[in-house]
Amino acid sequence: MAGRNHLFVPGPTNVPDRILRAMHRAMEDHRSSDFPSLAAPVLQELRKIFKTSSGQAFIFPASGTGAWEAALTNTLSPGDKVLASRFGMFSHLWIDMAQRLGLQVEVLDAEWGEGAPIERYAEALAADKNHEFKAVLFTHNETATGVTSDVAGIRKALNDAKHPALLMVDGVSSIASIDFRMDEWGVDLAVTGSQKGLMLPAGLGIVCASQKALAKYDGAKLPRCFFDFGDMRKANTTGYFPYTPSLPLLYGLRESLAMLQEEGLENVFARHHRLAEGTRAAVKAWGLELCARAPKWHSDTVTAIMVPSNVNGAEIIDIAYRRYNLALGAGLARMAGRLFRIGHLGDLNELMLVSAIGGAEMAMRDVGMKITPGSGVAAALEYWRTTAPELAKRELPPRAPDPQPGATAPSREKATAGAGR
Ligand code: PLP
User: Fold this and answer.
1) pLDDT confidence tier of residue 400, bands split at 50, 70 and 90
2) Cα(82) to centroid of ligand 1, in Å?
3) Is the Cβ–Cβ distance between 78 and 111 less than 8 Å?
4) Ligand 1: which of 138, 173, 200 to mutate, most ligand atoms within 8 Å of CB?
5) What pLDDT digit, counting tens, does each position of 114-152 carry?
6) In this structure, are residues 363 and 10 in contact, taking their beta carbons and an 8 Å threshold?
7) Ligand 1 centre and the CA of 199: distance in Å?
């Protein structure tokens, strides 16, 4: 099909041209004397997206799932009790992993579409006078349902109960897109992957560990080998890895971190909020419901849209893909067929997102839903043009100066610096 595929799944996300170019490298010796000049600054810079000054970042050639495993196995022992809530596919899979690793998981089940139940966490922690829970697992952004939970709230629950359990947060679909403050919120292990807010291909499982988490390493007896923090720390100290790292992804990560710093993390968060609000305006105009049951849980990286019971959401996704070259996110597990998702994270702007809203609109009409043509697109555009405060007031960047007669034209690279990725 002619034209680009419109990628609107909530990860992998669009890889900016700048990052694609940065990754386009001949392979190098990862044991050369030059290698640390790539790896060491990346490991340092990476900490900024977690907002930590005292934490240590680890990069594994893996995905977010590997980063979950690293967090658990480097800090816990067989039979340890952990407290977790389940309210979507990813919070479920993390619990499943913890159980399969031999941990005892006390599960707080909540409705899919609700956020993590902070009050119930607080009750369980307050009741645990002997501090049997060694860790609390918390999914910041449940990608399956488009729900964001309150990390500051779970930290407060731990503090109120004076509970020493480690706080482990899955930030796979939030970090580098939604506000995340590792130090301020006392997060001990923050987990992410490369293919979402970092705008890279999948292939890096990233964990950031607090000093408190690192201090648990020696006593933690769960088996680990590939994901061993000790091996990684030893090699990282001199700027190397204990095994072959993915060079293109490290070059890509360096570029991604530079781009995030150039835009400014707070601007990145504001942009994601604006994009999400426009998408939610479209859903409202279509007369449909979000899976997220209350505004406090609305996710700024993914919108999960419920479809009427006589419609199969999978059919909308299939038509969008095969007829319009648009990839939408599917309903997962118990949400299969009941919803479709629009991922709006990473390297994205308003007019790109219009293509997803317009394509979803066409596919919904194709399956017979009574959607007023253009209604979602109009609602999103009007929100962005008139309501989104920072967009409406945003100053236009200055025009490139007219070339003076006789002056040499600025190089194309300079003229387009910062414009597009
Ligand atoms: N956690 C969340 C919230 C996710 O969205 C995902 C993947 O989409 C994962 C964990 C698993 O990450 P990966 O697929 O990179 O292993």
Assistant:
1) confident
2) 20
3) no
4) 173
5) 999 999 999 999 999 999 999 999 999 999 999 999 999
6) no
7) 14
- CA torsion 178→180→185→190, rounded to 10°? 120
CB 256 less than 6 A from any atom of ligand 1: no
Lookup: tokens for 194? 């490369």
Alpha carbon distance 328, 343 (integer Å): 7
Say how many Å lie between the first and final Cα of the chain, rounded: 24
Residue 329's beta-bridge partner residues?
A: 341
- The alpha carbon of residue 120 and the mean position of all alpha carbons in its chain are separated, in whole angstroms, by 25
Contact 149, 139 (CB under 8 A): yes
Give the model's pLDDT for residue 346: 98
pTM of the model: 0.94
C-beta of 236 in contact with ligand 1 (< 6 A):
no
From the CA of 141, give the closest atom in ligand 1.
3
Confidence of residue 251 (pLDDT cuts 50, 70, 90): very high
- Phi and psi at residue 166, in whole multiples of 5°? -70, 140
Token pair listed for 156: 């407060």
Q: How many CB atoms lie within 10 A of CB 21?
A: 12
Q: What is the DSSP letter of 35?
A: T
Provide the pLDDT confidence category of residue 384 given band limits of 50, 70 and 90.
very high
pLDDT at position 204 over 70: yes
Q: How far apart, in whole angstroms, are the C-alpha atoms of residue 364 and residue 371?
A: 7
What is the pLDDT confidence band of residue 388, given thresholds at 50, 70 and 90? confident
Cβ atoms of 115 and 296 within 8 Å: the answer is yes
Q: Looking at residues 52-72, what average pLDDT do you find? A: 98
Q: Could you tell me if the CB of 193 is within 6 A of ligand 1? A: yes
The rounded distance, in Å, linking the Cα atoms of 170 and 250 is 22
| Cα 124 from chain centre | 28
Is residue 203 lining ligand 1, measured as CB closer than 6 Å? no
Of all protein residues, whose CA lies closest to atom 4 belonging to ligand 1?
A: 172
Checking DSSP bridges between strand 339-343 and strand 302-306, what pairing results, if any? antiparallel
